[in-house]
Design a protein that fits this description.
Length: 456
């Protein structure tokens, strides 16, 4: 007997997708306020029964019965993107790419599709926001594109999945998931119901046909992916494309990755021909560094498996308003004030009548404690008006007792310093144990921040 359907009005939380029969001011699932919106959905009046044959085919299996073949990854043509993905694209994976408007999401994916098509892969690029003419204008700016890359301008997810199942490409790009709709959900494109249903259909199509798929996702004003939170749970990988504001580069981070690490970072630069990889971000971030300037210190951080050199700038100036100011750009404010308190208590540095500022050059955001010693050194250098030698790299974690604690992956940090021509490294003394010697570079270990004054 055919199932009858009925429509009803329900309320969805735009933040997490929680469903309610009535409107509520605060979502009981995620705690957000004023996120409920009313939508009309169509439901079956009775549950579909599962046939006897289907019941007999469902069974649980042990781990030894599951065949685990080695993952075959497809090269994206971008070393930076492949690194963030864990070595390449896994067939059948669903990848969500989010970022601010105009950041370069579509450009990145179009260039990736062009690279893979040139390598002999079959690619379909589906745009729900641009016409085919607009896509062609953007593609002509990027360069020549192989005939292996096909384009569609469509928003009906039912027609799109039908084409993908028939063509069976190696990769599909959906730009964007918020513009897609299915006729079975009685709501407007971009609503919670439509985004959830379209993402579910793309997941089933990708997994069943072994088609890797990129989904472009819009973001809210807070910078999170728009739509229900379930969207991020459905996909295998969530990539965030961020801007360095006025500094001209783009950062690609992984917020979730079922096939690799979430600590990797990719660096790109936007040009008139599209996005270009920045394969040596340390050299890029240190461009234009002032020579013999007080308060300027170079440190080395580890982003995933990659060491990155960057400049920490500190400034201590006599206050003009009777109340000392503290300001941190690119560094946690509470961490900065704690380090200033340690300097005052353990080194006798009187900063009570001094304004103190710290800035991470290049617009980078530092969350690692290994930059503590560099921040302390930059403030000391500015306070004493003595410049730190420009061929010096400083890193180490600082404790509340003024001790300099060990940091991981010291060899990788020193190798990066050697590669860029630095001659001296100031690091925690405990890290010198078992550390091999490097030609042409001096390693200075310290136990307490007070020892830095002698080195300065």
């Amino acid at each position: 007997m055919a199932l009858k359907s009925k429509s009803e009005s329900v309320f969805f939380c735009s933040s997490c997708g929680y469903e309610s029969k009535k409107w509520m001011g605060q979502c009981p699932a995620c705690g957000e306020w004023n996120t409920f919106s009313e939508e009309t959905v169509v439901r079956a009046s009775s549950k579909a029964s599962v046939g006897t044959a289907a019941r007999g085919n469902v069974k649980a299996v042990s781990l030894s019965e599951i065949q685990s073949d080695e993952e075959i990854r497809m090269d994206t043509g971008f070393t930076e993107l492949s690194r963030v993905l864990g070595g390449g694209i896994v067939p059948g994976s669903l990848i969500l790419v989010g970022g601010d408007p105009g950041i370069g999401k579509s450009t990145l994916l179009l260039q990736t599709a062009a690279n893979m098509a040139a390598a002999g892969k079959k690619i379909i690029y589906i745009s729900g926001e641009e016409s085919l003419r607009q896509i062609k204008l953007r593609a002509d700016r990027i360069g020549s594109i192989s005939d292996g890359l096909k384009f569609m301008s469509e928003t009906n997810i039912d027609l799109i999945t039908e084409v993908l199942e028939r063509e069976k490409p190696d990769l599909a790009v959906i730009d964007s998931i918020q513009t897609m709709y299915t006729g079975e959900a009685q709501s407007v494109p971009g609503s919670v119901t439509q985004v959830r249903e379209c993402a579910q259909r793309m997941m089933m199509c990708a997994k069943t046909n072994e088609i890797a798929c990129f989904l472009v996702g819009h973001v809210t004003k807070e910078g999170t992916v728009a739509g229900p939170r379930v969207l991020e749970h459905i996909v295998d990988t969530v990539l965030q494309f961020e801007s360095g504001d006025q500094f001209g580069y783009r950062l690609l981070r992984s917020a979730k990755n079922r096939f690799g690490s979430t600590n990797e970072i990719g660096v790109f630069e936007m040009s008139s021909e599209g996005l270009k990889e920045v394969k040596n971000p340390s050299e890029y971030l240190l461009e234009g560094r002032p020579k013999n300037a007080t308060g300027a210190v170079v440190t080395c951080l580890i982003e995933g498996s990659r060491p990155m050199l960057m400049e920490v700038q500190g400034l201590a100036a006599e206050t003009q308003y009777g109340l000392a100011r503290r300001q941190a750009n690119g560094l946690d404010y509470n961490r900065f004030t704690m380090l200033l308190a340690v300097l005052s208590k353990r080194c006798g540095l009187n900063l009570s009548n001094m304004d103190a500022y710290v800035n991470i050059a290049g617009g980078m955001k530092v969350t690692q404690p290994s930059a503590d010693l560099a921040v302390v050194a930059s403030v000391i250098s500015s306070f004493k008006n003595i410049a730190v030698a420009e061929d010096t790299v400083i890193f180490g974690e600082v404790g509340l007792s003024g001790e300099v604690r060990s940091v991981p992956q010291v060899n990788e940090r020193i190798k990066e310093a050697v590669k860029l021509g630095f001659k001296r490294v100031i690091l925690p003394k405990v890290n010198l144990k078992g550390l091999k010697k490097y030609d042409g570079i001096e390693l200075c270990g310290i136990n307490f921040i007070s020892e830095f004054f002698a080195l300065l």
